[in-house]
Amino acid sequence: MMTKTRYLVLALAIVISLHYILSFSHEGYGRATSLETLRNQWKGGNLAQESEGKIHVWHEPPYKTPVPEKYYLQPNTTITRRANAVIVMLARNGDLNGIVQSMTQLEAKFNTKFGYPYVFLNEEPFTEEFKSGVTALTKNKIEFGLIPHDHWYQPDWIDEPKAAASRQDMVDHDVIYGWSVPYRNMCRFNSGFFYRHELLQKYRYYWRVEPDVKFFCTLDYDPFLFMQDEKKKYGFTISLPEYERTIPTLWAAVKEFIAENPDLISPDNAMGFLSDDGGESYNNCHFWSNFEIADLDLWRGEAYTKFFAHLDAKGGFYYERWGDAPVHSIGAALFARKDQIHFFDDIGYRHVPFQHCPQAPAHGRGKCECDITDNFDREGWSCLNRYDRIFT
Hints:
Elements: H1 2-25, H2 27-33, H3 35-43, E1 48-49, E2 55-56, E3 85-90, H4 96-114, E4 118-122, H5 128-135, E5 142-146, H6 149-152, H7 160-172, H8 181-192, E6 205-208, E7 214-215, H9 223-229, E8 234-236, E9 239-241, H10 250-260, H11 271-274, E10 285-287, E11 292-295, H12 296-300, H13 302-314, H14 316-319, H15 324-335, E12 341-343, E13 349-351, E14 354-356, H16 362-365, H17 384-389
Parallel strand pairs: 3-4, 3-6, 4-5, 8-12
Antiparallel strand pairs: 1-2, 6-11, 7-13, 8-11, 9-10, 13-14
Helix pairs in contact: 1-2, 8-15, 10-13
């Protein structure tokens, strides 16, 4: 009996020794078997809770798995299913030429086949020239909306002398759009109001498209149905750091919100994309929001509604120059599961000065019209590596 006991003790000691050796010599093993990870597994943190109740441990980013064939349009077939989705374009009348470029490519590469409607929004009424110019580009439904005054213009409660002093400081330091109030209006509108517009209330998903962008690849699957069926909340193509001088107090406001509303934060969030020290500081990474395919209910939900109200009350859209890109990115990272944030690796896209050009095999499948070496994904400023690391 004593001999069996000694063997069991010896075997247990060997197993424990191997565990500690692997923990120190292999980072991935150590991370996967740490007490924190096991605790998170019990609570649901850092793990994706699948619909059937099973827990999924990630070993690579979800986009590494190709989009299933069922979402692709097969030859000689008729589309029988669409998502409740819309293409949203914020534009001024003077943007017509840029809109023609963006819309012509989007129609040719995607929407002529799939037939999704458009909503155009402007703080001033669209001219007949603008309306006829874009209507000629598609057979799909188009609606033109006027942005409510209070959703666009600087609120009366903003201390204008304080805001002006901040703008002057940014001009003195050569910050892009440093003096522009209309740019700040746009950032605040996109952060907290576009999804409230009456023309968008009947939709669940949207694709944000801007003037003067390029789409390089033929898209033969429906990204809206992919988002819907796979329960994705936010999709992006380019990620990079925000200009720190434009958001000096943003993270302090975010931390304050988290401390006051811990119950609103997703237990399996993407904080690791935003912060390199567990949330103590912001690494400035964000998803470049001039391209978004997302679930409108993410912004309509209780968490983001309270989050935007908290930020708006700080006045940072005008006292600083908080952009909708970091605000949306922080919101998505905190209020969605990390696996619900999707990198559209197969959608070629350019907004000056950066572009995402899909790599092989997506480049060939999409017949992408871009130089495969001109790709921002792994450049020094790209935050894609941080996104990847939250899954490994």
